[in-house]
Structure formats: C-alpha cells, structure tokens
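Progress against Task 2.4 (sequence-to-structure conversion) is shown through the following example record, which the project officer requested during the mid-term review.
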Amino acid sequence: MQLTWFLNRLLKMSLPEIPWRFWEKSKKIIDKHSSWTVPRTVVTHCETLYKLSRNADPQTLKNCFSKEIKYHSLIADLALKNQYSAFGIQQELKNTITWHTDPVTQQEWPLKFWGDINYRDKRFGGAKFVWEINRLYFLSSLGILYRITKHRFYADKIIDIIISWVKMNPYPQGINWASGIELGIRMTNVIWALSFLHNYYISDGGKKAIHTFIWSHANHLYRYPSKFSSANNHLLAEGFGLFIAGVYFPDFKAATKWRSKGKSILEKEVSRQILPDGGSFEYSTTYLSFIFDFFLFFKKISDQNKIRYIKKIDMRLKKSCAFIKSLMDKSGNIPNIGDQDSALLIDFGISNMENFSSILNSGAILFDNNHLSTTQIDLKTFILTGESCNAYLRREKTEDSNHNNKLLESSPPAIHTLIHRESGLAIIRDNIDNTEILFTGNATPMGMPPLYAHGHLDALSFTLTVRGLEFFVDPGTYLYHSGGKWRKYFRSTASHNTLRLNMKDMSDQPGDFMFGKPYRIIKNTMKRQKNEIVWSASHNAYASEIPFAHISRTVIWKKAEKSFQIIDHIQQKKNSFADLHFHCHPDCRVICREKNIIVVRENITISISVDPCFKSQIYCGSLDPISGWYSPAFNKIMKSNTIRIYGNALRTTKIINNLKISFINATYNN
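Structure tokens generated for the chain above:
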C-alpha cells in the first residue's frame, strides 16, 4: 500500500520537482546530525506587537460581545487546568502537558527527528488531532481574558505554556515539526496572544522561551518551504509565519529576510490561490474561509506598520467578499464544497463556516461596501478593522443605544443568476412569496492540480436552500488521514448530489489527498428562456470507463410552478447502470410514497417526482453500503437521509426528476 502511494505520488511530480525533493531529503539528513544553537540575540517586544490587538478595548468587549467573551472565558479557564479540545475530543493533561499524545488513541508519537516521522502512520492515530492542540488556539482566549480582567494568572499561563512547549519540543525533534502549516499557525497564535500582554512583565525564562520559539519556527519555515505539488494553503501559512516573525521580532539577525520572504510568498500566491472570480484555487469553499484570513491579517499588519504591498491583495479580497456574498443564503449558510477540516487561523469563537459572515463584515468596513454586511458586527471584525469599526459603532450608538454593534441591513438580494467562471459555480437566487430560494450548481474542476488534494468528486452536483433552511446538501468531509473508508466515502461521487455510472467514482483515489486522472468540465452555462432559468453543465469523467460516454445535466427553474426539473442526459456506446443521489440535511424528514418522495423541514416540503423508468430507495445511517451520513465539521458525523434513484441506462438515456416546493401547515406521518 505504501509503495503504491509512493509511485502515485511520484507520478504527480513535475520533472523539476524530483531533484528538489532529493535536495530536501539531503537537507534533512544533514539537519538530523546537526546541533542547533539559538542565536544569543536579546529580543525585546517591539511596540508594534502590542498595537496588533489594540482595538480590543476591555469595556467594549464586555458590553458588546458578551456571548463571545463567555466562550473565551470557558476556554481560558479550561486552559488554566490543562484541559484542551481537538475537534470535540477533550484532553485533560493533568500537571504535565504532553504535547505528542494523540487525544483519540492516547498513543505517544515518537520524539525523534521530524524528518523520520511518517505522520500518515495510523498506528499512533491521526496526526491532525495532535496538531490541533499544538496550534495553541487557546492562547487567544487567555490573552483576551487578561486584557479584560487584568488577572495576571491568565498572562502567566500563556508564558508557562510557551516555556512548556519549547522544553517538550526541542528542535528538530517530534511530530510537531513535521508540517509547515502547523508551524505557521502556531507562530500566529503565540504572537497574537503576546499582543494582549501590554504592561505585563515577562520573566527572563519566559523571554528566553519566546526567543527560542520564534527563532526555531522561523528558521524551519525558511529552510523548508512547500514547493511544486505541495504548494497549496500550507505555503500561505508558512509565508505568513515568516512575515509576522520578521515584523514583530526585528532584533533577530534573520528578521529582514524572514519578513521579505514571507511577504513575497503572500503577494505571489494571492493571484494563484484566490481565483479572479474570488473563489479558492483548491475548489473548496471552506478553505476559502481559511486562506482569506491569511491575506486579511497580512493587510491589517501591513497597513498598521506602513508596509507597502501590491494592490492585488485588496482586489482579490474584494472579489472574495463578492463571491461569498453571492453564495450565502439568508441564514448565512454556504455550500460546503470540497474538503472541510474546520481550519482557523485564530480562534475568535466562531467556526470555519461562521467565519464567512465575519469576512463579509470586515469587507463591508474595509472596502466601504455595506451591502456585504450580514447585519451584526462580530468580535473578529471589531478587533481587526480598527478605527473604522469604532467610528461606525459610535455612530450607530447615537442612533440606537440598544443595537450598538449592528450594521445597516442590506436590502434583500434581487432575483438574479450568476456563473463564477473560474470557480465553476452557477447560482440561481429567486423569491417565492418573499421566501428566498437559493440553488447552487457545481461544475468545478476536481481540485488544485496536480494532487487535487482537497477537491471532491462532485461534478454536476447541487445544493438547495429554501428560506435559509438547507434541504439538499454536500455531506461534508468527517476525517482526513485516520478516515479510512470514511475518507474515501465522503470524497466519492456517491456522496454528492450527482450522477454515477457503473458504481464507479469519477476518478480513482490512490491516496487520502490524491486523485487519479482528472475529469474535464466541458460545459457550464446559464440562460433565461421565457419565465424559466436553465443551468446546463457536462463532464467527461466516464469517457475512459465507458467508450464515448458523455454526461450532462440540465436544471430548469420554473418559478410559476415553484419547481426545479433535473434532467440527466447520458450518451454512451453501450448500456450502463446509473444511479444518482439526493443528500438531505439531517433536519429534513423524508417520506417515500412510491414514485413520489417528500422531503419535509419545518413547514416547507419538496416533492420529488421520480423518473418512471427508475427505482428509488432511502438510506439513513447505512454501513453497507456507506450512505446516509452528514458531517457538519471535522470529526463530527450524524445520520441523515440519502435518496438514491437507480436503474439501467441505455445508450441514450434521459433521467428526469422534478422537485416541487410547497408550504404547508399539515404534519406528515411516516
């Protein structure tokens, strides 16, 4: 299995990448046998570090963000007891923090040279769970509580944790040095937490630990950048880590080159990793939430420190805000396309998905576009947008003292259609009796080449929300390296609202973060005809499986009938077996009545008239086959209803299913 993975991984590399990999391997061999000495530079915190969080005025935090402060108070008080959480798994570390323990398996990852550790080794558990605790997200909560209360024990705990971490993770030993993205995020959280400690005396031991921490992380990031096929969102974290180390610790001899290198990476990558239409180059909506914050914080830090940067940073951030706004329904839901690992840069008490609303709030203030706002300023926006936000709050307070953190409500979206060409997403947004209907059609490429690591096999799938309630959804991701069959299922064709032929995926999965031959999107169009809106898309995924196989999907929105007609057209040289799936949100009830399937949520029903030539069945929490599951966040899974429609497809076949929306007061019984 390991050999197969290695060969497939090798095939994904370009010719220039191969010698670079050998050079990296040589560096690891040298580093393994080298002794590392931290420079003796005496590092003092520059005043710019404390300016980073200067907008976190204690009185405003308590008055306007009591819910968020309650969350941070809980996390901080748990951290005081050495109790931490990784994706819902609680880890109580008693008196000594063991930074290498998997919270799920309780296995210890070996303390040996990081280059000799295979973090895909499932014997110890999932490395991601260990890394999650080692990102040190909880330091932010300790910093915020210190700012509000001035209780020294919160600040003391921050320093104690840094001292403990440095002692237990001597560079370059252990799993926590094995991935650059982890170093970049960990560096960010340490620096962010330190920014709250203005007027706090740090002991000599604390200063030495901070000194060692920053230098070891920055030195490693500078020596081992992600390149070629590995240059995805990891590279942004690495670049950002270098940038902030150089900005906030200028006394280091290498600080200038760290800052320059980090800035160069971010300025170069913004044009690649944020597409011209504002979407993510990894074709994952939730990774857009993650990578956006690297550029947002880069902008904040650069503006605050009068560091000039290319205009394209602002341009792509504006585009991303517009992209997110176009996908968001009235409840703040965003289609969960591609991988979702709940990644955050800093924990502000909002989830990866909730961060989209925060992004729009920040965009509304930074780019003077109130139509982006989601009506409520959040803690992250308040801290990041500085005086612009404070001025707005003061203005609003004079108008309505009871809603002093409320943004002007943007007007309801006009009826419109939109295709994001580079991202491959098609949007139909309409209203029925003042009820929002939002359909998103997915004709995205398979993922970010050449690995397509965070993409899913979801071509021609769709999501649908009505009145801000999700009905047909992308089921999510659940797990990464430790996922096994679950990882394979949640990436599969059957795990999306699309068509599959001969029970085969659109591409094979040779690794947890690798796909085989990519399919090509052939068509993706939107048009209006009379009172109808028509989305059409097609791909060539099965052309090698079934000679000359061509699959296209046409979705027709008929407003007068309150219905979507979904037509799947198959053209092939020989007959095949076809099945398609409709994955429902867990809050939906599904009632099967022969050729009519009813999906109910609150007082809204969607009736599915099944193609008369095909059969249907419903899965809910099935293990054989795996079907009927939903993952709202990483390491979270719950049962849901999946409707499967299946049958034989002739050489030319049209499968027609109709979805009719209605509003009821009656209660259906199974």
